[in-house]
Amino acid sequence: MAWLILFVAGICEIGWAIGLKYTDGFSRLVPSVLTGAAMIVSVVLLGIALKTLPVGTGYAVWTGIGAVGTAILGIFLFGDSTDFWRLVSIGLIVAGIIGLKLSTAA
Q1: How confident is the model over 60-73, as pLDDT tens digits?
Q2: Do 56 and 103 form a contact (C-beta atoms < 8 A)?
Q3: How many angstroms separate the CA atoms of 97 and 81, rounded?
Q4: Is the pLDDT of residue 106 over 70?
């Protein structure tokens, strides 16, 4: 269950990272409130997952999910680069997340 909670926390991290783009420096109310809520939910769920998972693993996976998801959505939503090495680097983060999952007993 901790892994599922951590996954949802990572999805919320993607939400707030992308949401930052839409807040326009926190000058737009609705995007700012939604982004703030996603931040809170993300960190709270991370804390719950870390009751069971090792802190280094949980934090690395949480940030990895956020980084990969944000990079992929950046490509689709904002036209970010799809340079070969960028995609390889995203793939390496995914490999790291998988490796951490496979090496953790929780």
Answers
A1: 999 999 999 999 99
A2: no
A3: 22
A4: no
Mean per-residue pLDDT of the chain: 96
3 state DSSP class of 104:
coil
State the Cα torsion 80-83-89-91 to the nearest 10°: 90
Radius of gyration of the chain (CA): 15
Of 2, 104, 100, 87, whose CA–CA distance to 51 is shortest? 2
51 SS3 class: coil
Closest CA to 78 of 19, 13, 8: 19
> What is the rounded average pLDDT of the residues 40-46?
98
Give the span between the Cα atoms of 25 and 99, in whole angstroms: 36
94-103 in b/e form (b: 16+ CB < 10 A) is eeebeebeee
Run of H or E residues at 48: helix 29-49
State residue 105's pLDDT score.
73
State the average pLDDT over residues 2-12: 97
